[in-house]
Amino acid sequence: AGVLLVSLFTSSFLSTAPAQAQIIHAGQACVVKEDNISERVYTIREGDTLVLQCLVTGHPRPQVRWTKTAGSASDKFQETSVLNETLRIEKIQRLQGGRYYCKAENGVGVPAIKSIRVDVQYLDEPVLTIHQTISDVRGSFYQEKTVFLRCTVNSNPPARFIWKRGAETLSHSQDNGVDIYEPLYTQGETKVLKLKNLRPQDYASYTCQVSVRNVCSIPDKSITFQLTNTTAPPALKLSVNETLVVNPGDNITMQCSLTGGDPLPEVVWSHSPGPMPPNSLVQGGNLTLWRIRVEDSGYYNCTAINNVGNPAKKMVNLLVRSMKNATFQITPDVIKESETIQLGQDLKLSCHVDAIPQEKVVYSWYKNGKPARFSDRLLITRNDPELPPVTCSLEIIDLRFSDYGTYLCVATFQGAHIPDLSVEVNISSETVPPTISVPKGQSTITVREGSRAELQCEVRGKPKPPIIWSRVDKETPMPSGTMTMETYDGKLRLESVSREMSGTYKCQTARYNGFNIRPREALVQLNVQFPPVVEPAFQDMRQGMGRSVTLRCTMLKGSPMKVATSVWRFNGTLLAQPLAEQQDYSELKVDSVSRETSGSYECSISNDVGVSTCLFQVSAKAYSPEFYYDTPNPTLSQKQSKNYSYVLQWTQKEPDAVDPILKYRLEVRQLAQRNTIQTFIPVKKMEKGLLLEHILPNLKVPQSYEVRLTPITSFGAGDMAARIIRYME
């Protein structure tokens, strides 16, 4: 099954051709409007498969990219696979409708951009709601009842509505009791059937039928409602108060009972924020929560719906009692702007806990283990406007030596099984405000990337407050993800530091669990050393035989930002070191490119922290040929024969970069067979952009073939290019 190859070789000048593009469609389209004056529209049913193909011409072969906004790579589709210039979307959804762009680009001229609008057709289930009004007529002698049946649907294209009473189709102004209209300012498509001054015959079965006229074979849909003289909106009542306070571990049941509604409403419980907790059970209108946790707090909503009137809603705000984070503050005499405790001046001790519900917390004060005796000089303030909400303060007027001692603040939930929280404050001549400093030699910390770092600030004073750490030079969070971090020993421990953590850090005293005064602060610098980042990571260097080539490996960034050492290797073998290193790069000159000096050159640059490598591939190999895919009528059939010929055309990529191309090696293999026929095509003339041509004869109809083409210079074989050729009538 050999192929006879006859060397029929010609050439003409092509240079390059800009990209051209055309969109064709396949898949499950309903209608495609091919109107050249207006836009092209591809109509498809929701849930079907969209297939669009972008046919391109141009030389070199253009690259194709599909986007949903012209030229923007930011709106690439996650759900699509771009293969063989084909855009395919399985089970297309309505939000995926819109304008799709095919962009073909080959670096020649401007890119070719074609577009098509995809119109996704759908028809949802209609929703029917009933609203009733009763109004007095003629001085309250009698009442008139009016019913509005409101039918809403989402569809594309817009739906047509048909109203039926029983089997009878109703029309606008059919009689004085019926009116059909479209309300303003509604979402989706809506039609209202108005029954005026309700009559006995109006109590019947009503159907709203919606249709998109069978477009994309979408069938009509309908919904029916039975109107009776007992039709009524839902009504609810709750078995608990709208605000419910419980203890952790309790089991509770909230009952939401129907007190009205016809047809029978559906009762639904929901929770916000977030979903219903896992320890909840809904049975009809009853919601039970077992072993309640603090995180079960929130709003529980009971909703009853029967599509008559508005849904009935009841809400319970569930509060789970909790107390945490007991803190204290020592505030010296504010009027005298003092920052220290002094006899004869006023002093305020404050106590706060984070609690739910906050206002139910009861604070008690003790001095030296006994309940504090309140007097003209010892005052209690429950809500201090200068402090967090519901903070209890003990004010000592005109501090005396006898006021020194240990004060204890106890926070309690009375009548609840919640453990008390307490905090102790010692007031004496030794109680002094804090100072903060950085230990000697610790103001700048230098560590390597990936290692552990410890920043330290020393706090003196009694009591010692917590330390708040933050970043100074960057509006970025701390490694914990928060903007600040709290430590009690003054040390900020950072695990596995990264280069982004470099910068200035601020430590400052907290205004709680210590003096409520202006924070004291200090700065610590963190330097994170990391290996160099170099370019190029890889570079293919082509040059003619006997010519020189200079290789440069540049350090883009690193810490420290200086080349300490550089090592060059050729095919793994160490080379003699180049001259003294530059600040941020290393160079090597190959004086003469030959078979012996061709190969892999590797430059390893170190900054004493790590090593990064540039890789250069140096050779005199020719670049690959670039097949020309836009040959008109490339297939030549032979009459009364089962053979055909194929016109193969190509240009040579960058022929002047290396030595002249002497010939091409051509390999042809019939697909699904192993044996390959090889021949050589001599080259008489070569320049950039020259279109070369070779006719492949005696190919078997209708077989396809793989063709491989390799340029050959005095250096040897260059880069090979391959393509598949197919028989076409």
From TrEMBL:
Pfam families in the cross-refs: Ig_3 (PF13927)
Key words of the record: Immunoglobulin domain, Signal
PROSITE patterns according to UniProt: FN3 (PS50853), IG_LIKE (PS50835)
SMART domains in UniProt: IG, IGc2
GO molecular function: axon guidance receptor activity
An annotated GO cellular component: axon
Highest taxon in the source lineage: Eukaryota
Annotated GO biological process: homophilic cell adhesion via plasma membrane adhesion molecules; synapse organization
Domain Ig-like: 18-117, 126-224, 234-317, 332-426, 434-525, 531-619
Signal peptide: 1-21
Record-annotated Fibronectin type-III domain positions: 631-729
Coiled-coil regions listed: none
Name under which the protein is recorded: MAM domain-containing glycosylphosphatidylinositol anchor protein 1
Organism: Balearica regulorum gibbericeps (East African grey crowned-crane)
